[in-house]
Design a protein that fits this description.
CATH architecture: 3-Layer(aba) Sandwich
Oligomer: single chain
CATH class: Alpha Beta
Largest sheet: 5 strands, mixed
Number of helices: 5
Order of helices and strands: EHHHEEEHEH
Distance between the termini: 48 Å
Helix content: 25-40%
């Protein structure tokens, strides 16, 4: 890939492209976890309202990867308090990492992760937490390659 990748914060003009990218990711997640996720409810999400929460906020970031005016990747990061028994008082919580098919395996996801690491360092936060679905082996391997360590897993029981 010879095109220049720009990583920047989301802007209102990006909402439509980002929504489509996230819905493609969510569609895959719903197919893998239909007992947990509801496609109809995901489609009804007011993404404009969700994305607007990230603009001009000190404690949240939604980064996009852009090539030639096309959004090819996203990641969101937010500062949150940790449980009182943790060594660190705050952490960065990463979610919504997705790279468009056809642009994967070109370092875009790593650039997005590094942007979140920079956000953490800027805010003097030493702990970053990424939520990854168990079935998402590619994402799990990506985070491990980027020096993240698996610490615990959530287990669900639907009754």
């Amino acid at each position: 890939m010879n095109s220049k990748i720009t990583i920047r914060q989301i802007e209102e003009k990006d909402f439509c492209q980002v929504k489509e990218l996230l819905l493609s990711m969510f569609m895959n997640h719903v197919q893998k976890e239909p007992s947990l996720l509801n496609w109809e409810n995901l489609q009804k999400t007011n993404f404009k309202r969700v994305f607007s929460k990230f603009i001009n906020k000190d404690n949240k970031r939604f980064f996009v990867a852009e090539i030639s005016n096309e959004i090819v990747g996203t990641i969101s990061a937010g500062i949150q308090k940790t449980p009182r028994f943790y060594n660190e008082k705050k952490e960065i919580y990463i979610t919504d990492l997705v790279v468009k098919e056809g642009f994967r395996n070109n370092g875009i996801a790593t650039k997005l992760i590094n942007e979140c690491i920079g956000f953490a360092k800027k805010n003097k936060i030493n702990l970053i937490n990424a939520r990854i679905y168990e079935f998402n082996l590619g994402s799990r391997n990506l985070f491990i390659k980027n020096k993240f360590e698996p610490k615990f897993t959530y287990y669900y029981l639907k009754t």
